[in-house]
Amino acid sequence: MTHSRSLLVRSAALAGVTALAFASLAGCSGSDGAADSGANASAQTDAGAEGDLGGIISAEEVKDLMDNGEDFVLLDVRSPEEFAAQHIDGAENLNVEDITADTAAQAIGSTDAKVVLYCRSGHRAGIAMQALLGLGYTDVASMGAISDWPYGYVEG
Predict the structure, then answer these.
(1) Reported confidence tier of residue 40, pLDDT bands at 50, 70, 90
(2) Alpha-carbon distance 84 to 46, whole Å?
(3) How many beta carbons lie within 10 A of that of residue 65, not counting itself?
(4) Would you call 147 exposed, middle or buried from its count of C-beta atoms within 10 A (0-12, 13-18, 19+)?
(5) How confident is the model at residue 111 (pLDDT cuts 50, 70, 90)?
(6) Which of 91, 94, 122, 140 fits as disulfide partner to 144, beta carbons 3.0 to 4.6 Å?
(7) Is pLDDT above 80 for 96?
(8) Residue 37 has what DSSP assignment?
(9) Which pLDDT value is given to residue 105?
(10) What domains appear along the chain, each with residue ranges and CATH number?
(11) First and final CA of the chain: distance in angstroms?
């Protein structure tokens, strides 16, 4: 089991690096929020909120999902210690290193559920996105970094 989990994480890491490289080329840096608004926001909407595989979704779009009572799972893929210190209200914690078919099913449920991921910098969210897509989840998007969330946190 440890070997298969390690293999899954390594495979997901390689796929995540590829996805992150593509996202960087597409202008998804997550560090200059003001510079990324406008034209990039519509690209993020098209990729993330409409159920496309492996999309990007902005914090504003996630907030809209929350405010509109949309049914989705917000997953913080950082360590349990990072999650306990600070997280977005309503988020579930599933450490990227612990993603398996069983843990994903427990945290998310249906493979058709809308899933939004975030972590500290966006890197682990990309890895987690690829792992979930590899497990058959069909509506997964990355919000990137928790620092992109301007709406406050639950502090531990």
Answers:
(1) very low
(2) 32
(3) 18
(4) middle
(5) very high
(6) 122
(7) yes
(8) S
(9) 98
(10) 2-155 (3.40.250.10)
(11) 32
Number of neighbouring beta carbons within 10 Å of residue 35: 10
Q: Which two tokens stand for residue 120?
A: 């500290």
**Both structure tokens of 122:** 């966006």
Supply the DSSP string of 46-111, one letter for each residue.
Answer: IIIIT--TTEE--HHHHHHHHHTT---EEEE-S-HHHHHHEE-TT-EE--GGG--HHHHHHHH-ST
pLDDT in tens, 100-110: 999 999 999 99
Average pLDDT estimate for 26-41: 32
Q: Read off the pTM.
A: 0.69
Rounded CA separation 45/61 (Å): 7
Per DSSP, the chain holds a count of helices (H) and strands (E) of: 7, 7
| Residue 135 phi, psi (nearest 5) | -90, 0
